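I am still getting used to backbone structure tokens and would like to learn alongside you. To get us started, please write out a protein record for me. Start from the sequence, derive the backbone structure tokens from it, and show both lines together. Once you have written the record down, we can walk along the chain together:
***
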Amino acid sequence: MVMSRDQNAGRSHSVRTDNSTFERVEEFKYLGTTLTKQNSIAEEIKSRLRLGNSCYYSVQNLLSSRLLSKNLNIKIYSTIILPVVLYGCETWSLTLSEERKLRVFENMVLRRIFAPRRDEVTGEWRRLHNEELNDLYSSPNIVRVIKWRRIRWAGHVARMGEERRV
């Protein structure tokens, strides 16, 4: 795969080195991360959210169970679902649209954990608002976690010796 801002780069259909020929592709998966020709992270985030959704649906009965405490459900979220979504997030540069998609996913899971509430005035069941979710979920939101991990990774890279490659 040839990654370049120049649209004409890598027009040939294959690359030859010594006796090997490599096919030109638009994207491929490397160490679980999808790399695209335009070096866009949007496809990777979509893929991570799909994997997070499948993980969420595999444990949704646990998350909605009244037998487990809210703290245990939050631990299930932070140890099973969140690592799947955030794999490789240290290299992501997020747009506002991508941040919103990640927040929507997190709020969906948190609404399942904290369950609907009965309105005190009308007596009807209602979904929790985002502000209420933020108050109930004491940990930093998913976007803040990504930014913290990026800073931590940048510090790790800065401390690496000159002889090592990143």
